[in-house]
Design a protein that fits this description.
Largest sheet: 7 strands, mixed
Strand content: 25-35%
Helix content: 10-25%
Number of helices: 4
Shape: globular
Oligomer: single chain
Mean pLDDT: 88
Strand order of the largest sheet: 1-2-3-4-5-7-6
Distance between the termini: 40 Å
Length: about 180
Amino acid sequence: MSELPDGLRLRRAVPQDLDDVMWLEHASFPTDAWSAAQMAGELWSPHGYYVVLETTDSGAPTVIGYAGLSSLAGNPVADVQTIAVAAEYRGRGLGKVLFTELLDEARRRDVHEVFLEVRADNPVAQAMYAAAGFEQIAVRPRYYQPDGVDALVMRATLPQLPTTTTGIGPIGQETLGERD
């Protein structure tokens, strides 16, 4: 995970975050925000991994960003569902922090390929995804409604986390070549 500035904390989202996430959803995506029912389904889904970024330095924590990943257990493919950062916190690399955490979780789930859609009129997000190794593979015309904005479909192959060897073979025996 990327280094967070002082006064911010990244944590796993819980269903009780729904109101805060929905406030930020509507502020970030005023014309095509998800419904509360859709977001609740994502937060409760056993296949989802949602995180929130919140302030910790004054009073009650305030959610200033969130992001979500979806992947079925055992499936080597995942989808980035959403990323949002409050307007007053943009331009500080916090979207990248959230995105990096999703990719780290995908690796922990042994995902090999990640897909996402991004608005064709969002060059900042497109650049962040391209810098992480994502390539455009398709266009979904007029995907974002009611604006009629195209979605660029992007994909990346993830390098896998290094595996650790324990010296124990598949049936509990020592691995070949490590015997005295």
